[in-house]
Automatic annotation (TrEMBL):
Gene3D superfamilies: Periplasmic binding protein-like II. Belongs to the bacterial solute-binding protein SsuA/TauA family. This is NitT/TauT family transport system substrate-binding protein. Pfam families: NMT1_2. The keyword Signal applies. The keyword Chloroplast does not apply. SUPFAM superfamilies: Periplasmic binding protein-like II (SSF53850). It is found in: Periplasm. PROSITE patterns: PROKAR_LIPOPROTEIN.
C-alpha cells in the first residue's frame, strides 16, 4: 500500500532507529527501581495513571516513577527510542510506524490504559438536534496527520458520509498542544478536544460538546504503555510491578466516585477546577474510555489498523503477537 510519510514523525523515528541502536537495552535510571515514564499529553483521559502515582500504587510496588509530558506522538516516540524514557504512554499506532521502519529494537505494547478515542467534537455554536452531516462545508481545526485523534476523526466522519479532505475546510497547521488555544482565539466552526478542555470550553461558553469520537469509533487500544523490546526482556520484574500498579489504579477509578477521582488527580491539573475534572472523569467513564484491564484486546488491535488504513497511514499490516506482549497483563489480572 502506498502511504505518505508524515511530517516529523517518520523523520525522527528513522533518525533514532539509526543512531540509537547501539544503546538498545540500556536503562538510564539510577537504580533498578526507578522508571522514567513519558506521556504523550496531559489529560483527564489518563486518570488511572495519575491515580497510580497519587494513591501510592507505584510506591507500593517499590517503583519510583518519574513522569514527563512530551507533547505529541512523534516527540514521545523519539524520547523512548533515544532512551530518554523507559516506558512511553502513547498511541499504539506509533509502534506500528516504528516497526514499519524496520527497527532493530521495536517498541512493544504491554498494557493498555484507554480503550476508546478520547476526543469530543466541539462546535462554536450550539446545535439542538445535531447530526454529523451538519459538518459538511464547515471549517474544522484538525489534528496532526498520522496521529490517532486525526485518524479516528476521519474514520468517524467517513462512516457518516463526510470526506474530511473534500467536504471540510480542514486546518491541520496547528501544533498538538496549541489546538485548544487556537480554537478559542480563532474562527473555525469545529474542533476535536480532549478533556478537560472540552468541559472547560462549555463552562466558558467558547464552544459546545456535540458528539464523542470515542463512542462513534468503538473499542480500540487508543493509549497504551510500550517499551523497547530489549527493555522488556531485561526488566521483567519492573514491568510486571508497573503493570500491576496500573491495573490496581484502573479498578480504583471504576470503583470510586468521580469526585473522589478528581480529588486524587487534581494535583496534575493545577489550573482546572475540581468540579470540571469530576465532570470530565464522569464523561470518560460513562463512555467506557478507561480500560478496566491492562490486557490489550486483539480485536481492538486490528480495528486500529483498519482505522489507520482508512486514513492512508498504515505502512503494513502487523500481527497482534508481533507488537503486543500480553504476559504482564495476564500475570496481574
Amino acid at each position: 500500500m502506498v502511504y505518505s510519510i508524515k511530517r516529523s514523525m517518520f523523520l525522527l523515528i528513522a533518525l533514532f532507529i539509526t543512531t540509537a541502536t547501539f544503546l538498545s537495552g540500556c536503562n538510564f535510571g539510577e537504580s533498578e527501581d526507578e522508571i522514567e515514564l513519558a506521556e504523550v499529553t496531559r489529560s483527564v483521559f489518563y486518570a488511572p495513571q495519575y491515580v497510580a502515582i497519587s494513591e501510592g500504587f507505584f510506591e507500593d510496588e517499590g517503583l519510583d516513577v518519574e513522569l514527563t509530558t512530551t507533547w505529541g506522538g512523534d516527540n514521545t516516540m523519539t524520547t523512548l527510542l533515544s532512551d530518554g524514557a523507559d516506558i512511553a504512554l502513547v498511541g499504539a499506532e506509533t509502534s506500528i510506524y516504528v516497526y514499519g521502519q524496520e527497527a532493530v529494537d521495536p517498541a512493544i505494547n504491554f498494557a493498555q490504559l484507554t480503550e476508546t478515542d478520547g476526543t469530543f467534537l466541539v462546535g462554536r455554536e450550539e446545535h439542538e438536534n445535531f447530526e454529523w452531516g451538519d459538518l459538511e462545508g464547515a471549517s474544522f481545526l484538525g489534528q496532526r496527520e498520522g496521529g490517532m485523534p486525526q485518524m479516528v476523526g476521519e474514520y468517524v466522519l467517513r462512516e457518516h458520509g463526510i470526506d474530511p479532505h473534500e467536504d471540510l475546510d480542514l486546518n491541520q497547521g496547528v501544533d498538538f498542544e496549541n489546538i485548544p488555544s487556537a480554537f478559542a482565539s480563532g474562527d473555525e466552526d469545529y474542533v476535536q478536544l480532549f478533556e478537560p478542555q472540552a468541559t472547560q470550553f462549555e463552562e466558558e461558553e467558547i464552544g459546545h460538546v456535540l458528539g464523542s469520537f470515542g463512542t462513534e469509533s468503538g473499542n480500540v487500544p487508543y493509549t497504551v504503555y510500550m517499551s523497547k523490546q530489549s527493555f522488556l526482556e531485561e526488566n521483567d520484574e519492573q514491568i510486571e510491578k508497573f503493570t500491576r500498579a496500573i491495573h490496581r489504579a484502573q479498578q480504583w477509578v471504576h470503583e470510586q466516585s468521580a469526585e473522589e477521582v478528581a480529588e486524587s488527580i487534581q494535583e496534575f491539573f493545577d489550573e482546572t477546577d475540581k468540579d470540571t475534572i469530576a465532570q470530565s472523569v464522569e464523561r470518560y467513564r460513562d463512555q467506557g474510555s478507561y480500560a478496566e484491564s491492562p490486557l490489550l484486546d486483539e480485536d481492538g488491535w486490528y480495528l486500529l489498523q483498519e482505522i489507520m488504513e482508512d486514513a492512508g497511514e498504515l505502512p503494513e499490516h502487523v500481527e497482534y503477537d508481533t507488537l503486543v506482549e500480553t504476559d504482564f497483563a495476564e500475570r496481574v489480572e
